[in-house]
């Protein structure tokens, strides 16, 4: 059993605190992704788990054993670095076998396990090459191979795909997923890319400024963002967020936007009149009539000129003005739309997100 | 290059070539003349009117300074040569070890007083050797290090350590920290990670740092001339000065000795040509 | 004891040998010499090491014409040598940069003088400028330009010229090589942009090339100011400050006073002044370097 647990983990550089008491439980064989903008403390947290940074306060346990004082080599972890960190003076074979050699494994055992890893990752043709003669994708594979060869309790990934181009990134994402299905191990994966987080994770940990903003499954954080930050961070194109003030129209609470449009608020939202709120809706929830994802019942209709249309094939992103801001809508199975054309949009009220403006917290029950 | 951008007229091109040619002649001829002199008999060197094209070349001058001829007693050049070699090699090896440790500390660790310490090391290099020789003479005389090889070795350590630190700091900085961390995750201690990963990668750089240190010691004069007294510790550059102090200036013998001093420098500089330029610009422009 | 075992101690432990060496060979002797510069220490009379005389050495120096001549000559020497080397080195780098063929060979040739230690350079020019057997006089004779030998190393003006010439032969290459490296790193686009904007060759040099080279120029000056005192070796063998102190520099004067006249206290006072001069030049160029780098928005 190799679960990882972080208890009130703090990191300070001198007087500056960069990670503020993080609590996290990673179950055995779970794939957990730490995601957040750069400087949010996700890499620092990972490096503390790895033992590359010392822990200023709190406890980290791997498989029930406190590892605070253990050096990296005694934690039975492996790590894939953003730069891959392949040893430039060793061949692929030597890179893969280095950890086993340090652990004084027999040559035959090293060869067996290295060949196994090479087979999983399709590295056989490159075994005698130096890293400098490999492509980016191949290097990435070697880095992963080096991690799996040692058969660790926990895999740590530090932005492993950020140096690849978009296409290769997509491919490697799938491979990492396959790898995890094949080599069942606990994984902690750090990235700033929310698409990677959504596609790979069993659970996502969204971090900002050294705090955990929300922990949940991909659908949790997508459908029920705990606060404005998570709402804006997860999803592409991002959620539209509009300032509003709670008012009452026909006995029902509405959010009054800056341009005077009243948006009826869902019944499960606890608000008081005059409260400043942020209304959020995903582009999928704002579509021209007849082109929406969930149909048009319980929706607010409005006529708006299209400012810009970005056709993407299966869908077209439309920009229109609402609440004094530019908002994005998504038109599914689109027809050709020209800028300046006036369309009737429907805003799906069932999928509205409401946040308190002052605290940023979600107001949905 | 900008040559492709600015189209010179033919006469400009020839002017440029002529300018470069003259500069190269000025740079090469003095040294070449000394080398040539080392292989010419004294009669030709002293001939009047001057003999420009040598009629014969000889190794007699070298035999002379090594005391292989009966006619000239010469200087104890062999002993000087051995002193130079022992002092230079020892101080290079030790300076490299000490400098490598220091450079690694500066490249890899954050610690209190880092900036001040680095500045301190660099400032220690601005002290002119000749100004340093006075107090060193007093101190070394008190503790019995005057005219010993050890005395000079210690002094050259101090001259070479700051520069070695500067160079190795740069070399280690070029090696990503990730590599050492990856090695530690792979099961190495920090010590193993250094020897297995960082050291092999820095080897070329360290070799050139060693050559710089060797050349500095090999060529040093100001301190050696004051801190050595006898054949026990005198080095070749000091020997060269001794030559000029003799009653009859033996130009051929001196030239031969000069050639002896320059050969290692020539070979080693050639070896580290590329690193020499890199070393000069290091930490300067590229950061 | 606990601190020594903690990881925070590692960098200090790594630096310890280096610090010890510098302390023993540079700092302690400098403190000793600082002390002796306030004593009447004479080598032949060890007891005088503790004979405190206050500022007497410095007062005597400031009132001594020989010292002032050597001081002025040293400042002049450093200033003239560094500036001429810079100008010639820049010119040489620009010329070589124009040559498309055999650049590497030319660069190797330029390194030739850098292989010579100062003592060798001094010997070489002592030989070349020798009035009886020197290459220079021989050439002038055979070209029929002179009929009496010129005493290059004896007449004041000529001797100083010869020394500066030797110094330049030794060090112009340092500038040329560094600036050539700078020219090679020069990005093409700004030059092309300037040409499109209608700049002529001089304007391109003045407004694009030169500002880009400034950090290289200052780093060359900084490096050179570090070891400019090595010229002592050269002067020592060429003229030893003579004849009759016509080429006396601070460095030769201090060894004469210290070792020959045994007046160590006085010599150390001079040594201190020469150290301050060296540091002043280095700091001056280093600050120029930092500001030039900041201006270029370069690395660090």
Automatic annotation (TrEMBL), chain A:
Please give the GO cellular component terms listed in this UniProt entry. ATP-binding cassette (ABC) transporter complex, substrate-binding subunit-containing
Q: Which GO terms describe its molecular function?
A: ABC-type transporter activity; ATP binding; ATP hydrolysis activity
Q: What is the lineage of its organism?
A: Bacteria, Pseudomonadati, Pseudomonadota, Alphaproteobacteria, Hyphomicrobiales
Keywords from the named record: ATP-binding, Nucleotide-binding, Transport
| Stored InterPro entries | AAA+_ATPase, ABC_transporter-like_ATP-bd, ABC_transporter-like_CS, ABC_transpr_MalK-like, ABC_transpr_MalK/UgpC-like, Mo/tungstate-bd_C_term_dom, NA-bd_OB-fold, OB_MalK-like
Q: Which family does it belong to?
A: Belongs to the ABC transporter superfamily.
Is Nucleotide-binding included in the keywords of this UniProt record? Answer: yes
In what way does this protein cross or attach to the membrane? Peripheral membrane protein
Query: Domain ABC transporter: where?
Result: 4-234
The protein depicted here goes by the name Sn-glycerol-3-phosphate ABC transporter ATP-binding protein UgpC
TrEMBL record, chain C:
UniProt record, GO biological process = transmembrane transport
**What is the recorded membrane topology of this protein?**
Multi-pass membrane protein
Q: Which key words are in the record?
A: Cell membrane, Membrane, Transmembrane, Transmembrane helix, Transport
The ABC transmembrane type-1 domain covers 71-285
Transmembrane parts of this sequence: 12-35, 67-96, 108-129, 168-187, 208-226, 269-286
Subcellular location, in the record's words?
A: Cell membrane
Q: Which domain of life is it from?
A: Bacteria
Main location (coarse class): membrane
Q: Which GO terms describe its cellular component?
A: plasma membrane
Q: Which PANTHER family match?
A: BLR7065 PROTEIN, SPERMIDINE_PUTRESCINE TRANSPORT SYSTEM PERMEASE PROTEIN
Q: Which family does it belong to?
A: Belongs to the binding-protein-dependent transport system permease family.
Q: Under which name does UniProt file this protein?
A: Sugar ABC transporter permease
Q: Which organism is it from?
A: Devosia nanyangense
């Amino acid at each position: 059993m190799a679960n990882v647990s972080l208890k009130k983990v703090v990191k300070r550089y001198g007087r500056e605190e960069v990670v503020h008491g993080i609590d996290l439980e990673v179950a055995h064989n779970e794939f957990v992704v730490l995601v957040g903008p750069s400087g949010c403390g996700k890499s620092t947290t990972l490096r503390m788990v790895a033992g590359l940074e010392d822990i200023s306060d709190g406890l980290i346990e791997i498989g029930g054993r406190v590892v605070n004082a253990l050096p990296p080599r005694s934690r039975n972890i492996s790590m894939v670095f953003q730069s891959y960190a392949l040893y430039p003076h060793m061949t692929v074979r030597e890179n893969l076998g280095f950890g086993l050699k340090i652990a004084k494994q027999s040559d035959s055992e090293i060869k067996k396990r290295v060949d196994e890893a090479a087979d999983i990752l399709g590295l056989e043709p490159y075994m005698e090459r130096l890293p400098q003669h490999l492509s980016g994708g191949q290097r990435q594979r070697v880095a992963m191979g080096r991690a799996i060869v040692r058969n660790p309790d926990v895999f740590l990934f530090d932005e492993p795909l950020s140096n690849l181009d978009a296409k290769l990134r997509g491919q490697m994402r799938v491979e990492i997923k396959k790898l995890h299905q094949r080599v069942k191990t606990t994984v902690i994966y750090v990235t700033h890319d929310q698409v990677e987080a959504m596609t790979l994770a069993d659970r996502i940990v969204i971090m900002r400024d050294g705090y955990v903003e929300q922990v949940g499954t991909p659908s949790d954080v997508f459908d029920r963002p705990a606060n404005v930050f998570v709402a804006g961070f997860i999803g592409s194109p991002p959620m539209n967020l509009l300032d509003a003030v709670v008012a009452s129209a026909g006995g029902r609470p509405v959010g009054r936007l800056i341009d005077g449009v009243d948006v009826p608020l869902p019944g499960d939202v606890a608000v008081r009149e005059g409260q400043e709120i942020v209304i959020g809706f995903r582009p999928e929830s704002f579509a021209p009539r007849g082109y929406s994802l969930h149909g048009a019942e319980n929706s607010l209709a409005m006529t708006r000129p299209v400012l810009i249309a970005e056709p993407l094939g299966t869908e077209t992103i439309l920009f229109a003005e609402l609440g004094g801001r530019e908002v994005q809508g998504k038109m599914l199975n689109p027809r050709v739309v020209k800028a300046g054309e006036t369309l009737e949009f429907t805003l799906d009220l069932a999928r509205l997100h409401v946040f308190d403006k002052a605290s940023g917290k979600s107001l949905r029950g | 290059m900008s040559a492709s951008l600015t189209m010179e007229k033919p006469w400009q091109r020839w002017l440029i070539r002529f300018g470069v040619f003259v500069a190269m002649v000025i740079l090469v001829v003095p040294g070449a003349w000394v080398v040539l002199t080392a292989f010419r008999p004294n009669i030709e060197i002293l001939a009047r009117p001057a003999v420009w094209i040598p009629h014969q070349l000889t190794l007699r001058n070298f035999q002379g300074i090594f005391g292989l001829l009966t006619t000239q007693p010469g200087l104890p050049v062999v002993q000087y040569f051995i002193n130079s070699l022992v002092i230079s090699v020892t101080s290079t090896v030790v300076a490299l070890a000490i400098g490598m440790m220091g450079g690694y500390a500066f490249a890899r660790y954050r610690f209190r007083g880092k900036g001040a310490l680095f500045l301190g090391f660099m400032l220690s290099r601005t002290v002119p050797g000749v100004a340093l020789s006075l107090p060193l003479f007093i101190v070394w005389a008190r503790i019995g290090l005057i005219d010993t090889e050890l005395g000079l070795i210690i002094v050259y350590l101090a001259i070479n350590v700051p520069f070695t630190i500067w160079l190795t700091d740069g070399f280690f900085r070029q090696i990503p920290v990730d590599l050492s961390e990856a090695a530690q995750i792979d099961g190495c201690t920090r010590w193993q990670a250094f020897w297995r990963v960082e050291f092999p990668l820095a080897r070329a750089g360290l070799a050139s740092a060693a050559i710089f240190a060797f050349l500095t010691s090999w060529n040093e004069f100001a301190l050696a001339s004051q801190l050595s007294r006898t054949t026990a510790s005198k080095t070749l550059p000091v020997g060269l000065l001794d030559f000029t102090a003799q009653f009859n200036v033996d130009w051929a013998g001196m030239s031969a000795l000069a050639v002896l001093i320059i050969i290692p420098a020539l070979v080693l500089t050639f070896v580290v040509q590329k690193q020499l330029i890199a070393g000069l610009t290091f930490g300067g422009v590229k950061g | 004891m606990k601190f020594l075992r903690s990881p925070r101690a590692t960098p200090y432990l790594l630096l310890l040998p280096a610090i010890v060496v510098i302390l023993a060979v540079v700092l302690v002797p400098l403190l000793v010499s600082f002390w002796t510069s306030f004593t009447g220490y004479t080598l032949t009379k060890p007891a005088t090491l503790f004979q405190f005389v206050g500022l007497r050495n410095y007062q005597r120096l400031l009132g001594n014409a020989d010292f002032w001549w050597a001081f002025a000559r040293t400042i002049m020497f450093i200033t003239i040598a560094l500036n001429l080397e810079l100008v010639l080195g820049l010119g040489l780098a620009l010329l070589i940069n124009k040559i498309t063929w055999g650049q590497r060979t030319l660069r190797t040739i330029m390194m030739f003088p850098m292989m010579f230690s100062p003592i060798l350079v001094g010997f070489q020019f002592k030989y070349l400028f020798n009035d009886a057997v020197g290459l220079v006089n021989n050439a002038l004779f055979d070209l029929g330009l002179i009929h009496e030998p010129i005493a290059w190393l004896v007449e004041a003006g000529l001797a100083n010229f010869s020394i500066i010439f030797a110094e330049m032969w030794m060090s112009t290459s340092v500038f040329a090589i560094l600036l050539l490296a700078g020219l090679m790193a020069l990005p093409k686009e700004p030059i092309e942009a300037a040409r499109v904007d209608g700049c002529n060759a001089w304007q391109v040099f003045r407004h694009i090339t030169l500002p880009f080279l400034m950090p290289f120029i200052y780093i060359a000056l900084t490096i050179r100011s570090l070891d400019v005192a090595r010229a002592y070796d050269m002067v020592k063998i060429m003229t030893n400050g003579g004849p009759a102190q016509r080429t006396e520099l601070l460095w030769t004067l201090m060894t004469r006073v210290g070792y020959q006249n045994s007046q160590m206290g006085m010599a150390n006072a001079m040594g201190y002044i020469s150290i301050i001069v060296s540091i002043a030049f280095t700091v001056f160029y280093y600050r120029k370097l930092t500001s030039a780098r900041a201006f270029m928005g370069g690395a660090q």
